[in-house]
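User: I'm designing a mutation panel for TLC domain containing 2 and want to avoid disrupting the core. Could you give me a predicted structure to guide residue selection? Please restate the sequence first so the numbering is unambiguous.

Assistant: Good idea. Sequence first, for numbering, then the predicted structure tokens:
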Amino acid sequence: MELSSVILTTGGSVGFFRLVNAGVSKLPMPESAARNAWKWRNISTSFVHSLITAIWAVLCFFRHPQMAEDLIETHTVFSHALVSFSIGYFIYDFFDMVLNQKLNQSWELLFHHIVVITCFGLSVLSCRYVGFAVVALLVEINSVFLHLRQILRMANIATGTLYRVNSMINLGTYVVFRINTLAWMTRWLVLNRDKVPLLAYTLGSVGMAIMTAMNIVLFYRLLRSDFLKSSTRETKKEKEKEM
């Protein structure tokens, strides 16, 4: 893809997600979510991005499996467009948070977005490491269930079979597509150190370290919220019945 195509795809993505956000605001909203309408729209928009990107990333490797053998040079217009499209989403979401949320509530995600935009930007502009970027986007498979979890909680459906099933799938995909993917990417970066220029290697290493730390913290929070606390509540209920 030429620079003009990258700019067009990225800009079109920003516009697309603005329209998605506007469209969500026209749809019925649960009363429990009305207290924070912006967050409901933001998470719903993020859910749409995750759903599109997860399917798109899998299709990239399905349509062009050779890309998995060479994550540096080999890529297609289809995969290059995916990375450009995702940059557009992260730019959109960055400014959506800056304009609508307090800095002390969003600094972690803002920092995450800056790292992603920088790394993906280097990839699409240099036309290298596109395959590596697509591997990174496989984490969006988990993000589908992660965002669905937030939507269910905001809609006051944080109990019952649907939430429980989603929680288990969310935790499972978190380990497979988020933690394992980041571990594999870190390993690949170390093994291919000689093939990667110093700037790209440094940027990738710092990015991987930050993402790994953030994801370990988030994994603990999910485990504590959806499984450890619920187990504690069930134990208390059983003790109360015995009394």
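For picking mutation sites, this is relevant: Residues 38 and 100 are 7 Å apart (CA to CA). The radius of gyration is 19 Å.
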